[in-house]
Fold each of these.
Amino acid sequence: MDAAERRKRKSRRLRRERRIRLIWYTVLGIWGIFGIVGIASVAYWIFGAAAGTQVVYGGIKGPAIPAALGRGTADTQEDEPQQTKLLSEEDRSTCKRLLEENPALLVIANKDHGLSRDYDPDLRYICSGRLQAASAVYDDLVEMLAAGRNAGYEFWIASGYRSSERQQELIDEDVRSRMRDGMSYEEAMERVLREKLPAGHSEHETGLSFDILCSGNMEMDGTQADEPGNRWLVEHCSEFGFILRYPADKEDVTGITYEPWHFRYVGRDAAGFMEEKGLTLEEFTENAQCAGL
Ligand SMILES: [Zn+2]
């Protein structure tokens, strides 16, 4: 082998080694980048979640829900305090007495007040097993529907008890659907929470609330108010322990737009008193809390 041949072999070997080194550097480089990105992602997820900027809410990753909608965060609410209709001292005492007599039936669930995490109502089936209701409501509900039938009206209960998991599913479904239509997560959640309450905050989770539609009109919208059957319910429901929970003239108090179909059981005494004084459950509760002040 002459010198020229040896030089050629040597340079071929060097080129091969350089290629191998290059491949190794590339592999290590890519690995390194993935490693850094991975560590950064984990750190962002941990610290971001701790800072409330990146919580997982109902399986969808996004920004934290507004504090006022969070469970048990009523004291962090930043909205303007609402004007509450303050009753006379005697009436405030009546509110307090009624609340103390039956706190379970007067439990409040709304945007500001969530149910306790271990809230677990005693339930029984209604509507041939299609729905569930709190046991305490059963007799009065059956009696009210029977009285309505005697007056010539048929009703369809569209919704009764709903678990907080189901409430969350309904919110998630709506959010996903709006995101598919092009909204950002924040926009979609904001829109959905205008109409639905977050899990843990819906009255349906108490088993004390029912969406009652008039037979012949299955639309859960303002047209229910035009039905004679709905008018009968609104007029007579308090006799059976129910209140129209979200009246048209109390949207600023309840924080929920008018729902002519949503009835809430509070017991006959409380319902009669609330009907007589024109109180929402929020106003009733606040007056009870102001008794003796
Ligand atoms: Zn409802």
Note: Residues 46-78 have pLDDT under 50 and may be disordered.
Amino acid sequence: MTYLTDKSILNTAQLIDWYHLNKRDLPWRLTKDPYKIWLSEIILQQTRVAQGTSYYLKFTTNYPTVNDLAEASEEEVLKDWQGLGYYSRARNLHTAAKFVANEMGGIFPNSYASIRELKGVGDYTSAAIASFAFDLPHAVVDGNVYRLLSRLFGIETPIDSTQGKKQFASLAQTLLPIDQAANYNQAIMEFGAIQCTPKTPKCHTCPFSISCIALKSDQIERLPIKEKKLKQKKRYLNYLILESDDELLVNKRDGKGIWQNLYDFPMVESATSISERNLSLSKDFQTLLSGSEFKIVVSSKERKHILSHQILFAKFYHIYITDKLEVIKGNFEQIKKTELANKPIPKLIENYLREETNLLSLLGSLN
Ligand code: SF4
């Protein structure tokens, strides 16, 4: 296949017409407020529209302006973010809101370069906000755009290579009609999302099927090309829910990991999946529970949880401490079971608590 720069392959007026006829009604498309557009873009990174919509509505309700978000505590923001994953996005969002509130007088930046300086904002997000809110002529390139352009133009350069990123950015910018930046960017992403989809693109109703190089050369399944395969590390986590009648111990995660500042339970990590007996014989388990009287009352089956760079295998053990929790408290926080609902917790733990424990009734305020 050859890479063609022939602009006639993608008639942008036709693309924008398609968009007006087929676009989904999404709440962030009804505003020109750069703050709300920024919220939607950060929420939608790595998140499906169906899931992201309720979070967008929650954030715009709880924090109607950038100053409201800046004034919230990090714990409140993480709690509202709970379930979306990739928690660094929420922490960056909060940092950026405080920067806009404190350093920019609460006025959201209005140029590509100044938006790009906000924490957690990259090339794609700056182009999206600059074009949607201010009609500035910066072309977006997201996964949908990579897929559509690689198929339409028959581009085989890997989309995750330096050369590929430059090539696709340059092509998208060349195609962008200067006076229709917002419509064009929305249209090209929407087309990739609902027409030229990853697995079963709707080629039979595609307005570009005559010019599409991938369709002509039967390369749809092969394109776009990625050169790097993601390596996912496997980890085995044994969570210990150490409880008395109405209290339990939780662990606030410090350090720089993915779950920084979220709460989980005391945990013993093992090199492979281990049985309850081998767990209770392990040094970490014995150190943690030394000097206490306890009984393992429930052990869960193993749950698999997939993150971008890790596959987690987690088991949960409910351990009733017959003497006082203080004996093993250490650096953990001792809380009432009813307080758990107010703590930001990782999705893996929320799923377990919701689906398999009688703590569910105590989690009524979780979304
Ligand atoms: S013809 Fe098929 S593969 Fe080509 S752009 Fe249209 S939907 Fe995508």
Note: The radius of gyration is 25 Å.
Amino acid sequence: MNIKKLNIANQKPKVYEKGDSVMWTDKHVSKQLLGFHLNPEIDAASRTPDSINNTIEFILKCCNKSQMNILDLGCGPGIYSEKLTAKGHNVIGVDFSENSISYAKAQAIKKSLKIDYVCKDYLELDYESQFDLVILIYTDFGVLLPSERKILLENVFKSLKPNGTFIFDVLNDRNIKQKFIEQKTWSFENNGFWKPKPYLELTNGFNYSKEKVFLKQHTIIDETERIMNYRFWTHYFSTNDIVEILTANKFVNTKHFENILPATDIWNGENVTFYKTERNE
Ligand SMILES: C[S@@+](CC[C@H](N)C(=O)[O-])C[C@H]1O[C@@H](n2cnc3c(N)ncnc32)[C@H](O)[C@@H]1O
């Protein structure tokens, strides 16, 4: 075992240094993730049914329009896309997980729902002035690095019709820093979340207070001694931070909404703030 390499992989990286592996599109991991999305007991990948229903109700109340053209970014297996379609809206769902998109497509056929699902990276969108509403749900806005966030906002702005609405949720900065704990853990699995064969997992949490971002890093070593590094950067924001970011990207009429979700864990309740903002022209 190359201990030197392992030691480097296990260190606190420079802020925003990317890992070498992507969880959502990995064949084995994306199968585990689909199971999480669809499990109503687990608040991972997708939220639990109470939170999802509150979110749908909030979105529809916020927009109060019939037959909207909606773009669901990072739609996963289509839980929100289906509910919005059932309410009479025209939905396009975009996700880069082939596994989630194939499942979503099969479900739409099974349930006779007309939903257009596209397997694509949402940083490479090419829609123009087409949507009344774009949504990005489950704190995915905060997962993007600042350079990616800028690309996403440009893409969303371009895809919206003039005065169209963008709704997303983020972790707010009120209490979250104390809840993100810097700690090191390890586990050994024979067939687990990351691989269908034996592996060692080293998990680290790192806080970067200046940038208001927390890193959860998973270092996976399998029997071939290959080392894989998965890094999840999660930002937390004040309302001023978000207004500043949106204003710099030409969005207007930004409003924030608190306590939309039941208080179940750190990804719900008072920790999550929803934002509604509009394309200005
Ligand atoms: C936390 S899940 C949320 C899924 C869904 N919005 C929900 O709440 O049920 C994030 C989703 O975004 C997708 N995703 C992440 N980055 C993406 C990207 N750059 N382009 C497209 N999809 C992406 C993942 O594959 C995953 O399905």
Note: Residues 49-63 form the longest helix (15 residues).
